[in-house]
Amino acid sequence: MINNNHKIQPKKYNSLKEFYYFYLTEHQNTINRALHFTGISLLCLCFIASVLFHNVYFFMAIPLVGFGFSWIGHQFFERNKPSTLKYPFFSLASDFLLFGDIIMGRQSFKTK
């Protein structure tokens, strides 16, 4: 009889660089990348607006726009699960890294 009660341990990432390589494999779809870029752009704008206008509603919108666009991209276009809950820091940092890499031309919306 085979024991199927064991659980496979998820990979543990020791550095952001190591995680970012995994992150890029989970973000191959052009629309998903565009939605992530849009979400991070709006997140930054909401943060700036909340500081400039001292408006708590802009601040409260940060998680909605930050996660909302990304999760739509994963659910409907990439067809995988976001790693936000397993790796919250690495995932958010990688969102900003991809955002910066796209702006700097090191990555593009379209892969391959």
Automatic annotation (TrEMBL):
InterPro entries: Mpo1-like
Keyword terms of this UniProt record: Membrane, Transmembrane, Transmembrane helix
TM helices/strands, residue ranges: 34-52, 58-77
Top-level taxon: Bacteria
Protein name as annotated: DUF962 domain-containing protein
